[in-house]
Automatic annotation (TrEMBL), chain A:
Example GO BP: maltodextrin transmembrane transport
Annotated organism of origin: Pseudoduganella plicata
Record keywords, A-Z: Signal, Transport
GO cellular component: ATP-binding cassette (ABC) transporter complex, substrate-binding subunit-containing
Protein name as annotated: ABC transporter substrate-binding protein
Entry superkingdom: Bacteria
SUPFAM superfamilies: Periplasmic binding protein-like II
PANTHER family attached to this UniProt entry: MALTOSE-BINDING PERIPLASMIC PROTEIN (PTHR30061), MALTOSE_MALTODEXTRIN-BINDING PERIPLASMIC PROTEIN (PTHR30061:SF50)
Amino acid sequence: MKYLCNVDRTVNGKRRALLRAAGLAALGPGLAARALADTPARGASTPEIVRMWTLLSGGDGARMRALVEEFNASQRAVRVESTTLKWGEPFYTKLITATVVGAGPELATIHLSRLPNLAGGGVLRPIAPAELAAVGLAGGDFLPRQWAKSQYAGRTFAVPLDQHPLVLYYNKDLVGKAGLLDRAGKLKPIEGIDALTEAFRRVREATGKPGMTMESAQSSYAIWRLWLSLLAQQGLPVVADGRFAYGAAGAATLGRIAAWFNAGYATPGMDYPASTSQFMGGNAGFMINGVWEVPELVRGTEKGTLGFDYGIVPLPKLYGNASAWADSHGFALPANGERPMTPAKAHAVLAFVAYVARHSMGWAEGGHIPAYRPVAESPEALALQPNAQYAEAAHNVVYDPDGWYMGAAGPLEAIASKFLPAPLAGQLTPADALRRFEAEAVRLLRKRPPLY
Amino acid sequence: MPARRRETMPALLMLAPFLAVFLLFFLVPAIQTFYLSLTESSLTRTSAFVGLANYATLVQDPSFWASLGNTFYFALLTVPPLTILGLLMALLVDRFTRAGPWLQGAYFLPFVLPISVMTLIADWMLQPSSGIVNHLLGMQRAWFADVHWAMPMVAIGTVWWTVGFNMLMFLAGLRNIPRELYEAAALDGASGFALFRHITWPQLKPVAGTALVLQLIASLKVFGQTYIMTTGGPYNTTRVTLHYMYETAFTQSDAGYAAAIATAFVVIVVLLSLLQGWVARRLGGSS
């Protein structure tokens, strides 16, 4: 449940060296020099220390560590000290509690879906356009959708880093045996939930292996993400005007997901690592997961450990449209209560943020779609494989609805993660699971947004 | 009365550290918690005084009552075995003069483990595909994801973990029983179970009463085990009251309501302990 990317991965040496070289090459007259010039004269021997808390682990964590090291090596005015904390509820609880007493870090990675909660609750400090301009950034540098998600009450509260939608992975060997590939070896288009169910069934029958795998144990967030996507495909929000708005489609849709597990096309009760290793081990035809598993597949292919060819497509259009849940990482500045940061510190923080944005090609190799347009729209990014296979997904993403209780590992997701997986293991009926979910979550909808 | 004063001053001096800690870390926070329960508050800020509104919500909150039911279920599963096993272990340790100390060490050892280690061990042993329990039983059951088994498994882990402490309490009680009683009874021809029934048990009753009350309170305070082993699942069937309070305060930032849960829970635990003490005394007095 708490894992976005939990499989231990490291950036391989070669790529890391390349990244470092790229970082040094980009240094030149760039922002590091500007950071040096703008920092008050404290001498190069006493750099401005920026403490960063990050929730990025696994492959994402290794990439962010590499970026931090390269940044620190690229100049001497600012030194970023990064601490990785357990992602999910514990991370946000710690960020909120530390920040309200003024003991938070100067910089934090967050999910943009949590902005109404964090910015609205007073946990974050707004970033002024002038502060961004001082490090050479402007709103127009970022993809509009992500930039919009970084705003709260008309002000900027985060600098977007990426976007990571839910996609459909497939094992070409198994799916091929089930006759689901075209002549070019690509997945034949699947449209409609019946067609996808049929695809899962055919893999199961042709190979004897599960048609599909996804995280499905208790406290899994994946079911919520898929359910949200499929409701959006029917034009239905989960919450609207402070009420649950999915109606009868909620149980029906959850029932369609549960049916895959009940019929044996997928194995219920798998936690995140178990579900990904089922796919990586060549034991499932499809996997529904976020793009953050891409590097593991790339690495397995490079090392020759994967044992099968794979492909990735955006989540198919199963109902009226092709909406797919997505979230974004972003950088935010904790407010730290009575201890606001000095302008010099804020400048140092944003210098690092700008550096990461300019070097987010390395981040794209983590499967994410970069939010910084000069990188996202560069020929290299557009040609990057396998990212190009699912780039289309970016046009149909749907975020968690706005609301103080929404967002990654937020209060409502935490409740949903308890009840939504239950029908998959046959423990509750879909209607019963949603009834219990609503009974507990309705208090959140009625409550005033907390000011932390 | 100088003599009395001479006794009062040192007594107060010796009590002072305890009183200070008690005031600072129990009484004052308890009063603050009660005040908090009368407000609408986030983690650090109070936005309104709402009187008894949180309590009015509480009595109609199915999640609270369900969590209370889970807490009592856990107590039911742990208090009797912990007390009875503790007693049996103490008798064994007391009986075998040579192996006794070894047994005592073995029984007490799990108690020294931090909760994270204990839950890790339990989790490994109960893994669906690689755990030793499923291996021995020839099953693939996901014990902590099973509605019927999750709580009993947490209870078994807890009993294994903490029974050593009760054993020590009973052992202390056993060692306080004058040996002459046994010798006299042996001269009269009593042996085996008769010795236990007529000498050991009556002498041990006050200890058993204390052990029961302490154990009941300890079991009602359960949080760490279910939080780590089951995260309250599947679908909240193992979410105990303190876990619900934690989620309300920290995940949902509703400190006022969480304080109401805490206050109501303290009242329930105190009432139960008093009731149990009263019953134990009644039973003790009638023999």
